[in-house]
Structure formats: structure tokens, C-alpha cells
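Proteins fold. Shown next:

***
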Amino acid sequence: MRPRIAAAAAALALVSATGCSQVAQLQPVAGAQISAVRTATNNVLVEQGVSIQVAPVCEFIDPLFECRGSTTEGAEIRSEAEILSEYGETTDEWGAYVPADVSLVVTVGADTVYDGNVEDVLLRNGQEGS
């Protein structure tokens, strides 16, 4: 039993020493633009302190990804992101594929709570814990 614990501790120390960010680890798992959009949308809602009743569900409606949900007060949550053909053709410093300049707009009711880049949200939230 002790060799397993020692091996696990050594592996954990190696991972910690490499300095990988959460973004580098999560993006390859996401694997698709819609996952990046959904994750970024949820991150924005958490950042803004939005109380969610129905988490946004995302779908592709050419040429946009659209996500819709609702708050506990009944306001509609909506996000839209444009698809770019070069998604997945560029890699960041960790070698993970990044959502190259995918713009994201998140609204809650009539208020725009975010208008920016998907990658910025993922990077910001991925590095907070490191």
C-alpha cells in the first residue's frame, strides 16, 4: 500500500512543479467550441454573482452558438458566440487548442453583463487557483 501512496505523492509533486494552469488542463478536455462557450458563459455568470435557476443550455444555430437559461428571479440568461473556422488551428503556450478570438456576449434580462472574448474568460478563471 505504501508504494502506491509514494507514487501518487511523487506524481502530484511533478504536476505541481511543472506549473501547468487549469486552462491548459481543461481546454483539451473541452474539445469543442461549444464547450468553451458554455464554460465561459457559466464563468461570467459566477463572476457577476448571477443566481441561476436553469443553467444555460447551448446549441449551434448557424452561424452562432446560443446558450439560454434563467435566473432565480425569472430573468432570461442568454449568451451568443460567433463560430470561427480557425478554431483549433492555433495553440497557446501550453500546446492546448484555444478558441481563437471567439467573441462572447452574455445578457441577463435586458442587461449585458459581458461583451468580450471567450479565451479571456477561460484564462482569467483558469489562473485564479494557480
Remarks:
- Strands lie at 52-61, 64-71, 76-82, 103-108, 111-117.
- The chain has a mean pLDDT of 74.
- The chain has one domain: 21-127.
- DSSP finds four helices and five strands in the chain.
